[in-house]
């Protein structure tokens, strides 16, 4: 069933592109938008509500993949509407909802480590955001797309995409936190490239989120509210090889109420700090805590984060506790691969 949902999402994604091409052709040929079919406003409101509900379901689901069938059904309704004639204003709104939906589909696939299909969904979301002229949706789609390269430690591939996303976000709604989120993710790519100056500058931009007032995010395709600043700064400082400064930021992050996925990330970074300080006991302690959380969270992202710790284990003496951590990571990785 998961394969069916994935294949159907990819098919629907191609139809979004085809709808845009057909509309461009109709416009070039002088089609009169006044002849377009009318659609009740209620449908748009219902689709908006459905999108919001699906993001809420995704946030609370222990296994993100369980939300995929409902997202696929929602996407199918939107794409079916895009293939029919409609007035320009409604088409723009439908493209916005489609970008929203495909970003969520990409997030679910990303969580299962299905990076290729997630990338396709993010690309469709980006194109739909562009067709809608919605710079914030467009930029957020590109940030999510860049995350794939970040998780695969392909920083040189992620950085240009994030730089472009930042430029697009700068043209969006200044009351939203899109620019700050793009900056925080851009900082991670710059840290991976060893650009400390650029990284810290991007982090400073991200921290300007605390200056925003009102509804700065929507809890769906944009969720950046500044609560992740400490953990993201810590992660960047780990990447830059600054363990003392990283530990301070990560300690602050651990005091916050974190989701399982975020807690695993912070604990893994703390274990990396231990490795950089050549402290095997600290490595084993934080890594074991991360493994305990990951084993109950059913998230492929957590498995990948723990797997990223393995090169750091070589920096400390191979004590019995460190060997146990290495074994548990390998077992978790094998289990996740088997389940896929």
Helix-strand blueprint:
Layout: H1 2-28, H2 41-60, H3 68-82, H4 88-111, H5 115-132, H6 135-151, H7 155-169, H8 178-192, H9 196-207, H10 229-239, H11 243-254, H12 260-276, H13 280-297, H14 300-307, H15 310-313, H16 320-339
Helix pairs in contact: 1-3, 1-5, 2-3, 2-4, 3-4, 4-5, 4-6, 5-6, 6-7, 6-8, 7-8, 8-9, 8-10, 9-10, 10-11, 10-12, 11-12, 12-13, 12-14, 13-16, 14-16
Question: Can you describe this structure?
Answer:
The chain contains 16 helices and no strands. It is mostly helical and 340 residues long. The protein folds into two domains: 2-245, Tetratricopeptide repeat domain (Serine Threonine Protein Phosphatase 5, Tetratricopeptide repeat, Alpha Horseshoe), CATH 1.25.40; 246-340. Helix 13 (280-297) runs parallel beside helix 16. The radius of gyration is 21 Å and the shape is globular. The protein starts with a helix and ends with a helix. Residues 24-29 and 33-37 have low confidence and may be disordered.
């Amino acid at each position: 069933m998961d394969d069916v949902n994935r294949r159907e999402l990819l098919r629907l994604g191609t139809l979004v592109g085809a709808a845009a091409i057909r509309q461009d052709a109709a416009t070039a040929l002088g089609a009169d938008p006044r002849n377009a079919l009318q659609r009740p406003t209620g449908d748009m409101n219902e689709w908006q509500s459905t999108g919001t509900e699906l993001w809420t379901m995704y946030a609370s689901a222990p296994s993100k993949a369980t939300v995929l069938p409902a997202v696929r059904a929602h996407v199918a309704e939107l794409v079916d509407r895009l293939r029919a004639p409609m007035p320009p204003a409604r088409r723009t709104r439908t493209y916005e909802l489609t970008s929203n939906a495909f970003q969520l589909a990409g997030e679910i696939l990303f969580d299962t480590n299905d990076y290729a299909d997630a990338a396709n969904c993010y690309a469709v979301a980006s194109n739909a955001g562009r067709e809608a002229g919605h710079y914030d949706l467009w930029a957020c789609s590109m940030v999510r797309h860049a995350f794939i390269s970040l998780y695969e430690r392909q920083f040189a591939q992620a950085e240009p995409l994030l730089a472009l996303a930042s430029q697009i976000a700068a043209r969006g709604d200044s009351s939203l936190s899109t620019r700050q989120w793009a900056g925080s993710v851009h900082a991670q790519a710059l840290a991976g490239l060893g650009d400390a100056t650029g990284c810290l500058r991007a982090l400073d931009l991200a921290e300007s989120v605390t200056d925003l007032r009102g509804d700065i995010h929507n809890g769906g395709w944009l969720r950046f509210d500044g609560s992740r600043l400490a953990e993201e700064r810590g992660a960047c400082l780990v990447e830059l090889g600054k363990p003392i400064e990283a530990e301070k930021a990560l300690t602050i992050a651990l005091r916050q109420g974190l989701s399982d996925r975020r807690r695993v990330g912070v604990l893994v970074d703390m274990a990396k700090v231990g490795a950089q300080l050549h402290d095997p006991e600290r490595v084993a302690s934080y890594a074991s805590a991360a493994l305990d959380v990951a084993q109950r969270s059913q998230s492929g992202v957590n498995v990948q984060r723990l797997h990223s710790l393995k090169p750091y284990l070589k920096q400390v003496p191979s004590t019995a506790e460190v060997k146990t951590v290495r074994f548990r990571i390998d077992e978790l990785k094998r289990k996740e691969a088997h389940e896929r």
